[in-house]
Fold each of these.
Amino acid sequence: MESLIVGLFAGVFGMAYFVYGKNSGKLTPLIVGVLLCVYPYFIEGVWLYVVGAVLLAVPFFIHE
C-alpha cells in the first residue's frame, strides 16, 4: 500500500518537474521528472524512499 502512495507522489512531482523543465528549457528538471515517473516501477523497499528523496533534491543542487 505504501508503494502505491509513494508512486502517486513521485508521479505528481515528476510531472511537475517535467512540465517545468519543458517550459523553461532546462534539462535537469526534465530528466528528473521522467525518472520520478518511472522509478517506482523498478525499485521497492526502503530504496523507494531513498531514491525518491534524492531525485526530488537533485534539481536544487544542479543548476544550469
Note: The chain has one domain: 2-61.
Amino acid sequence: MIELTLPQIAAAVGGRVLGAPEQMTVSGEVVTDSREVTPGGLFVALRGARVDGHHYLADAAGAGAVAALVTRHVPQAPLAQIQVRDTTRALGDLARAVLSQLRTANPGPQVVAITGSVGKTSTKDLIAAQLEGLGEVIAPVGSYNNEVGLPLTVLRANADTRVLVLEMGADAPGNLTYLTSIAPPDLSLVLAVGRAHLGGFGSIEAVAEAKTELVTTTPADGTVVLNADDPRVAAMASASPAATLVRFGQGEDADVRAADIRLDAEGRAQFVLAAGGRQAQVHLALIGAHHVTNALAAASVALQLGQPLEQVAQVLGTTFARSPHRMQVHRTEAGVKIIDDAYNANPDSMRAALRALVQMTRGTGGRSVAVLGPMRELGPDSADEHRQVGVYAAQVGVDHLLAVEGEARPVADGALAAGLDPQAAVRATGITEAVTSLRRYLRSGDVVLVKASNGVQLWRVVSELERSR
C-alpha cells in the first residue's frame, strides 16, 4: 500500500485515532489475519461468526503492525487503533480512497474487473500472465473476490502498479454494485451465468441480473467484454453504457473467436484464435475443454489493452494453473494421475471437470475415477442438482464414482439411476474413509478427479494419496 499517516487513514474510513502520535505512518501491508502481518502494516480486526480479530491485536503488534482498524477500543493492545463503526466497510472505504489517489497519477492503474459463475480465477490468472509486459500487474491471491478480498487486493497497489486484475464475486443482489464502488472498472468482463449461489439468488434469472450489475456500472468511456456463447451474458450488451463492446466465443459473429477446437491426449485444447482479421494457433497449457472460454476471455482483454495477437497466443500456451486446486495434475509413483480441482464446485463446473476426466482417461488403459464432494449454496434444489451431476457422470462414461460426505450422497444415487454399476458407485462418510477406499481400488493408469466446494477441503484426499506413494 502507499504510505499513509494515521489521520489520513482515519479521514478515509470515517474513524478516529486512539492513543497514537499523528505523525505515525502505515507503510506495510493491510491484512485481516494477524499471522500475515508485516512490519509497518495495518491490521483490520474483523468480527466473524467464530473468530473476533480484536482478540489478536497483541499478536498483530508483535508481528510489527503499527495500527489496527477496530470497532471497539482495546486499551491493553500495544498498537495504535483507528475506531470505526464497521471494519469491513472501513476496509472498503480505505481501498476506495487509495485507488482514487493512485488514479490521479499519469498513468494511473487500469482496473480489469471479472465476474461469472464459473472460471473467474482461472481467467484472472490467464489475464495477469497476458499483461505482465505492461508493468506491475496485481491480481488476487486465490479467489479474493468479495467485500474483504477485493479491498485487500486493491490495497496491494502502489505508484508502480499499471493494472489491477480483480475478481468480483456475488452471492446476493447488490454485491457487484458495492465492489465496483470500491474499484470502478475500466474494462469489465462477464464469463458465464450459471447455477452457483442459487441459495442466495433463488433462480438463474436472478443470477443473471446480479451479474449485469458489473456491466451497468462500467462507465461510458470503458470497455465491456461479454461471452457471446452464453445467451444470458450476450443479452447484457443492451444494458451496457460503455462505448466499446467486445464479444468472444465460437460463433462467427464473435469479435474474438476460437475455431477448429481439438483436444490432445492430456485434455488440453488446441484451436485457431481469430481476431481483427488475423489468426494464430493456440495450444493451451491448461487442462479441460472448458478453458477455451477462459482463454478467449483473457485474449479479448489482452488485445483490448494492446497486446499483439501472436504474443497472446504464445502466452496462452505457456500459462499453467497459478492458483491451487484448480485442475492441477499430480502423478503418484504407483502410476495414478490425480486431477486436483477441489477449490470450488457448482453444477456447471462439475460437468466440465467430468468431461475433462473422461477425455484424459481415453487411450490410457486405466479407469476414470470421480471423487466428488458437496456443492454448497445451491438452496432448496441442492439434492436434485447433486443427483443430476451423478446422472451426468454416468452418461459421459465415468468408470467409478465416490461420493464423499452425506450432502453428496445424491450424486451416487443419480449415477446408479443412470446405469452405473452398483459396485462402481461408492459413498464415503468423510475424507479418511474416502482415502481408504481409493487406496484399495486404484491401480496404475487410473485417472482420478477430486472436486467439491472449497469448505469441504477435499484437496486433502489428494495430499493423502500423494503421501501414500
Note: The chain is about 35% helix and 20% strand.
Amino acid sequence: MPSTVGIVASGEDVLNDAVFWVDAGRSSVSNGALTNLGTGGSALNAVFGNTTGVDSFDPALLTHTGTNYLHIPAVASNYATATNNSAYRATSTVSCRFVVSLANWTPSAVAYLGGLYEGTSGQRSYLCAINSTNGFPMMFLSSDGVSAATSIFATQAPTVSPGGYLAIRCDWLAAGPTVRFYTKEISNNAYNDVVNDAGWSQLGSDRTASVPASLHPSTASLYCAGYSASANTEMAFRASAFKIDGVLQFAADFTTGITSGGQTTFTESSANAATVTINRATSGRKSVAVTRPILLFGTDDYLEVADNNLLDFGASDSFTALVVVRQWNTPTSFGRYLDKKNGGGVGVGYSLSPNGAVLQPGMFLGDGVNQVGRASQAPTVGSLNVVSGVVDRTAQTATVYTGITAGTSGSTSTLGSMSNAIALHIGVSNTLASAQDFELVAAAVWRRALNANEIATIVNRYT
C-alpha cells in the first residue's frame, strides 16, 4: 500500500501539486487545447484530437453555467421518452412546445424535437423537427400511421444565434385543417415558457395545404429530443410540453427534473405524472444529463499531450495517474481512460483502463521486458468515479483505487524504467485504438505516490 505520510489538507491542494491536471470546468480552451492547471504549465496542455482545429476526433466539451440540461449528441438512440398514454392521442388540436439549443440552426441532419411517432412500426402520428436545408421548423403528420407522414414546413426560419436557446411551438388544428408555428424569447424559467400560452409570436403564416384533418391514435412512446429511427443532430434540451385537445398532458422540466449527472429518469409535471426516461446509445457519444462541465468521449474521441520528461518515470520514480469519469453501458474491454504506453503487455509505459472481461479499472505497467497489472473493484455503471493508479517505488508497490477503495497491491520490484518518447493520450491508446466511451470530468498525473488520505480528498472534491 502507498505510504500515509505527507497528508495534504484538501483535494484542491493535492491537485495543485500535480504536474498535469485538466478539468472540464476549470481548464480554459486555447488554440484547440485544454490548458494544463498543473505545475508542468503550458507544455502539458491537452490538445483536442490530433490537431488544433475542430475535427471528428475531438471530445465534446459540455459547459454548464448553473442551469441543468439534457445534451443530445448526433448519434442514434439518444433521446428522452415517456410510455404511451391515450391522453397523447389528439382529435382536435396538438400543441408541441420545446426550449432547445442547436449547435447549428441549419443542421446537417434534421433535428427531431419530439412527438408521438414511431416510423418503423406503423405508429406515426405527429413529430416536430427543424429542417436541415433551411432551418425551418416542420411537423410530420400521419392520419393512418402507416403511410409516409406529410411534412408541413413553416414559411420562414426563426431568428436565433448559433448555440442560442429558443422556445419553439408547433400546432396542428383539425379545423381548417391548419398547422401553425410559433417562437418565444426564453426567460429564466424554461418550464413556464413551454406551458404558458402567452408570449408566443407566430412564425410565418398558416399552413393548410396537404394538412391531414385527423391524426392516427398512435401507441408509440412520446419522444423528446429525437425519436428512435433517427441519428438526430446535436442539441441541448431544457423543457418540453404537449397540449392535446387543449389540455396539458405532458410537461417535462429538464432543468429541475435533472438533479444529478447519473440520472436516468424523472417525473414530468402534468397531472399524468409520467416517468421521463433518458435513453442512451450503446456505443459512441451518449445522452448526457449535464449538471457540471464535462468532456464527452465517443468512438475515436481523445485528448493528446505531447511527450515530456515530466510525464516519464524511471526505475526509481514514484507517480500517480488519475481520472474522474462516468461510464455508461458496458465499457470497452481495455478501452483506454489514460495511456502513455507504447504497446500492450510489456510495452513501455503506463495506462489506466477497464481490466479485460471483468471490466474492473486497472493500471498496466511495462518496461519492455516485464509487466505489472493491478485492478480494483468494478464501479457502479452511471456513477461518477475517481479511478487512480499509484506506483510507489520506495515500497515497490502498484495499487489501483476505485474511489476510496483500494485493490490488492502488487510488486513493482521487477520493473525498470517506464520512460518513453510517446504522447500521453486520454480516451485512446498511443496508436489511436482502444477507444473508450465515457464522460470525463478531470485527469491528473503526479510525480509522487499519493496516499490513501490524499486520494480520499480528491474523491470528496469530485463526487
Note: The CA atoms of residues 303 and 440 lie 11 Å apart.
Amino acid sequence: MIVQGDVFFTRAKKLPVNAEVKQRSNRGYIIADGEATGHAHVVDDDVELLESDGILYLKTAKEIQVKHEEHKPVILSKGIWKVGIVKEYDPFSEEARPVRD
C-alpha cells in the first residue's frame, strides 16, 4: 500500500469489466479533490483512469508520480492500482466517513 495524505493505492490484479474511462482535466488526471483546501491528488503522466462502482482504478505502463500541493509526491510503478480514501470512525455517532483533506 502507498499512502498520500487521505488517499491510498493498492495493487489490483485486473480492471473490473464494467470500468468506465475518466477523462483528463486541464490539470491532469484528478485522483481525488480536497474538500477543505481545494487541492487535488493529480497524475499528469499518460495513464488510464477508470471508475467502477464508485471506485477509481489507475493503469500505467510506466513509473509515474502522483502529486499534491500539501504532500510529497508518491511514485507508483507500472501496473494496475486501486484508489482508496482513508476513513475515520466516530464512536459517538457510530459512523465511518471519508477523511477530509
Note: The chain has no helices and twelve strands.
